Amino acid sequence: MVREFSAGGVVLRRMSGEWQIAAIEPQKEGSEPTRGKRRVPRKVILALPKGLVDAGEKPDQTATREVFEETGITASLITKLADIRYVYVRSWGDRERIFKIVSFYLLRYVSGWIDDVMPDMRVEVRRALWLKLEDAHRQLAYNGERQVVRKAQEYLKSHPEV
After folding, report:
1. Are 105 and 80 in contact (CB under 8 A)?
2. End-to-end CA distance of the chain
3. Which CATH number is 101's domain given?
4. How large is the C-alpha radius of gyration of the chain?
5. Cβ(136)–Cβ(21) under 8 Å?
6. pLDDT tens string for the chain (162 positions)?
7. Into how many domains does the chain fold?
8. Please, is 21 exposed, middle or buried when counting C-beta atoms within 10 Å of its C-beta (0-12, 13-18, 19+)?
9. 14: domain range?
């Protein structure tokens, strides 16, 4: 079984007294589904920014790079939160089973505008947005990422200086 290694970030910022995190809506291939001639509303998928670790790159570097590429914001490392592991089947090409490990890092917002991404990233990201941290675990699509957000909340409770 092929192995893939990725890294991503939970980017925190405090705005009007509330913690927020950066999320993305991945771009899905194809057009909006239709039923007859009616357009069917598509389900919005929200996820944390993440991507493959490049050769010679450390996972925490990947996390900050992917956050910048997919959201348009610059962030700095606070700490590693967790690794999530899962198996998926490629939906393209060889349909091979992949064992994937994604390392997630807690990051602090430094600068930039959310959703100010390079045009070539629009093939991957429909939009980037801020979510209230307290609601994010209900809005993110993937269970492993919801668990990572809960770890970020636990970290903030035990490290109020952040």
Report:
1. yes
2. 40
3. 3.90.79.10
4. 16
5. yes
6. 899 999 999 999 999 999 999 999 999 754 444 455 666 666 889 999 999 999 999 999 999 999 999 999 999 999 999 999 999 998 877 889 999 999 999 999 999 999 999 999 999 999 999 999 999 999 999 999 999 999 999 999 999 888
7. 1
8. buried
9. 2-158
